[in-house]
Amino acid sequence: MSLAPWLDACPAVAILRGITPEDAEPVGAALLAEGLTILEVPLNSPRPMESIRRLATAFGERALIGAGTVTNEEEVAAVARAGGRLMVTPHAAPPLVLAARARGMIACPGFFTPAEAFSLLAAGADALKLFPAEGASPAVLRALLAVLPRGTAILPVGGMTAETIAPWRAAGAAGFGFGSWLYRPGDTPDAVRAKARALRGALGLG
Known about the structure:
EC number: 4.1.2.21
InterPro entries: Aldlse_KDPG_KHG (IPR000887), Aldolase_TIM (IPR013785)
Radius of gyration: 16 Å
Distance between the termini: 27 Å
CATH architecture: Alpha-Beta Barrel
Oligomer: single chain
Family: Belongs to the KHG/KDPG aldolase family.
Keywords: Carbohydrate metabolism, Lyase
Low-confidence stretches: none
CATH superfamily: Aldolase class I
Order of helices and strands: HEHEHEHEHEEHEHEHEH
GO molecular function, one term: 2-dehydro-3-deoxy-6-phosphogalactonate aldolase activity
């Protein structure tokens, strides 16, 4: 399993922080209707494992469902049991990359420095989450890509909107994580779909 085909289809991760299990499926359906097929439920959301289970059950192979804000190996195991296939961390944790890969999951851990990036790639990370991107810049991303192995996929996360991604794309970002700009607790599926449609336009996907 690889993250690359999902990013090729649409280089956007929908970060559904704060979503409830009751809202997960209708919001997920709205995102999929606009071609956003990578859905992340941060584990500091209400009953996150139930949301992951419902999304995985509803959308199966049509979407890549997973968890963010993963901080320990017990959580990795629980996400896998719920049907999640993607693990995202806020920090550089090679043991969590190993734990995810051992379960056949895609691992996209967080990093901020070259040392962290290299250690995570050595552990088998599929992609890297540059976080918080607000503390970096497209110039930093370009410099990182110049020294990391060719083909390393870096996804800036933090402060990303349809209006801010152009310079990051030009610097070589493989994709992006969109959080509160795309979804806030209480947003209706129609509101989320409208933002997803705007994002598709910004990404040049029509």
